[in-house]
Design brief:
Elements: H1 3-34, E1 37-38, E2 46-47, H2 51-58, H3 62-91, H4 99-107, H5 114-129, H6 140-168, H7 172-180, H8 185-196, H9 198-214, H10 217-222, H11 234-244, H12 249-280
Antiparallel strand pairs: 1-2
Length: 281
């Protein structure tokens, strides 16, 4: 890199790098350290070793229950979002009338904030369940499927746009050659379309997996963990531990570190597996 470019590189990248350090890197390192401390504020932290991690897993089962609930929710939502979004993308790349309108309508739920979306769906679901003498917090099953429906409704349109971009990037000559060779729709889908859109699948799986695990505001607005914390996801459990129990700030921070490691491992594993498929194809 020439000296002039190096000077301008520092000018343009420097402020962004400083902001990254202030807003992310420094708080992350401090949070990692505080997970090994007992504290009320950052200034009075006292190192206690692994005590916070032991308390996070041993004192009650809330963290493990919320972790298991989050895993179940992530599996259901990732499958539903990606399958429906991919099918919609296939349908909306067939040249049907009103395609642009449908794309806009399906994408719009992604523009609504999570808290607002949670309260909207709480009203909708309770409006149905009240007719039968129930509410969304009467049974954990109602809350579970309510969260899956909410997450799917919000994310399907966003993932659909990414899949549409991948499908439209497939050369038409390949599809026409397959049609001439007598390949049917399912054969074309399995042998040409899906392998060709693997980069889009990688992106969509990464986004849906990470967003499903990190879900917080929708969970807070829709069920707030009721009944009896049975629909409490990990992010909400960490929030309630850190801000809802005096003297448990370090335990909440330890849970946050465990959560970060879990999401990072799952996301990196998914990226490795799907990117290896991209290389093969």
């Amino acid at each position: 890199m020439k000296n002039g470019n190096k000077r301008w590189f520092a000018v343009f990248v420097g402020p962004t790098f400083i902001a990254f350090c202030i807003a992310f890197l420094v708080p992350f390192i401090m949070g990692l350290y505080l997970s090994f401390c007992e504290f009320r504020t950052v200034s009075d932290a006292q190192f206690v070793g692994l005590q916070n991690y032991i308390r996070a897993f041993s004192e009650n089962s809330d963290f493990l229950n919320s972790l298991w609930f989050t895993v179940k929710f992530a599996i259901a939502s990732v499958i539903s979002i990606n399958v429906i979004a991919f099918l919609l993308a296939l349908l909306l790349t067939r040249g049907i009338r009103g395609t642009n309108l449908f794309r806009t309508v399906f994408f719009m739920p992604n523009l609504i904030g999570g808290i607002v979306l949670g309260y909207i769906w709480q009203l909708i679901i309770n409006g149905i369940l009240y007719n039968y003498g129930y509410s969304i917090t009467s049974n954990a099953t109602f809350g579970y499927w309510g969260l899956v429906v909410l997450m799917s409704w919000q994310m399907i349109g966003y993932m659909m746009i990414i899949y549409i971009a991948g499908i439209q990037n497939i050369p038409t000559a390949i599809l026409e050659a397959a049609r001439v060779d007598g390949a049917g729709p399912f054969r074309t889908l399995r042998s040409i379309i899906i392998p060709s859109v693997m980069p889009s699948i990688t992106i969509c799986l990464f986004l849906t997996i990470t967003n499903s695990f990190k879900l917080f505001d929708q969970n807070l607005a829709l069920t707030a963990g009721a009944p009896s914390k049975q629909t409490q996801m990990v992010a909400l459990d960490i929030y309630n531990t850190f801000y809802g129990r005096v003297g448990y700030e370090g335990v909440g921070q330890a849970k946050a570190v465990v959560f970060f490691v879990l999401v990072a491992v799952v996301a990196l594993l998914q990226l490795y597996l799907t990117r290896s498929r991209e290389v093969e194809n």
